Amino acid sequence: MKNRKDPHRSPLRLQLALVAAALSFLPLIAACSAPEPEASVVVYSGRNKSLIGPLLERFESEKGIRTEVRYGGTAELAATLLEEGTATPCDVFIAQDAASLGELSKAGMLKPLPAAVLGRVAPAFASPQGDWVGISGRARVVVYNPERIAEEELPKSLEEVGDPRYRGRFGVAPANASFQAHMAYYRAVKGADALAALLDAMVANEPQRYPKNSAIVEAVIRGEVDFGLVNHYYLWRALAEDPAAPGRNFTMPDPTAAFLNLAGAGVTSSNEAAVQLVEYLLADDGQRYFAQRTYEYPLVAGIEPPVDLAPLTPEQLENQIDFARIAEELEPTLEAIAASGLLQ
User: Fold this and answer.
1) Using CB atoms within 10 A as the burial measure, which of 64, 75, 320, 326 is most buried?
2) DSSP 249
3) How many CB atoms lie within 10 A of CB 259?
4) Are residues 172 and 300 in contact, defined by beta-carbon separation less than 8 angstroms?
5) pLDDT one-digit tens code per residue, 15-26
6) Is 129 left (phi over 0), alpha (psi -120 to 50) or beta?
7) What's the predicted TM-score (pTM) here?
8) Looking at the domain 40-137+261-309, which fold is it?
9) Comparing C-alpha atoms, which of 128, 177, 139, 180 is closest to residue 315?
């Protein structure tokens, strides 16, 4: 006779089977309940930490995207990116001047940006290839001391700076990147011979040489020189500290003298957070930050600067050169500056 099954064992076997089944689902449950990887973005910034750091910290806080920033010179970081190539950890490159962005674009290092991002600014403020965008503008101006020279007596072009009547009365910063980029722009527009003649005229006119823009502004305010060639915002920073300081900005009417350089950003990876950061820099709040904190020109229409900045000229708004050209002209421009003796 066959043994009958013990009716008390069936519930035990059922319990064991249920436990085994539950255990088999644990890996799936763990996978489903595991937190998503933290969104993050790596930034190479050629802009000084004191200028853009607070805005990047605000992005991290508001968007919940961990932001790792490597600061350095724009040219240095661009060279690093070119050396690292596709192995670079960088997701976003923020440049102090757009010439380096043009160089990276030409090398194929930058990813195309969405049309909505590019459409935030005028076409003149973005790459013709659609792979970088300007985030703020810096105009080249003459800063002058109205107690020493009247506005109508100032040079109206770079060539006029070489007029003998200004001998010894003006300041330049020939080793500064903004001056060098301006001269590279001049060379791209007018040619190598014209640049050589301009530099020779400046040297012959015995300028006072300074290490950077802010030093020129300080010298103008002290009355050490009558005027100097600088980026526009350095005077506004000085006036924020001393509103009574005798300094004014003058925009020369010649288009090559009123060069508008751009700080800009490009994406170097497929990380979605990278595009989010660029969008943040071009959002209204980001543009107000540049206008209010750094006294630069916001590039998005409708954002008003807090100080009485001179309006951008039609040439500045519409006739920008491809910044890849400026990048190409930079090395021969540096050689021309050195050969002229302006650095001495």
Assistant:
1) 326
2) E
3) 27
4) no
5) 545 545 555 555
6) alpha
7) 0.82
8) D-Maltodextrin-Binding Protein; domain 2 (3.40.190)
9) 139
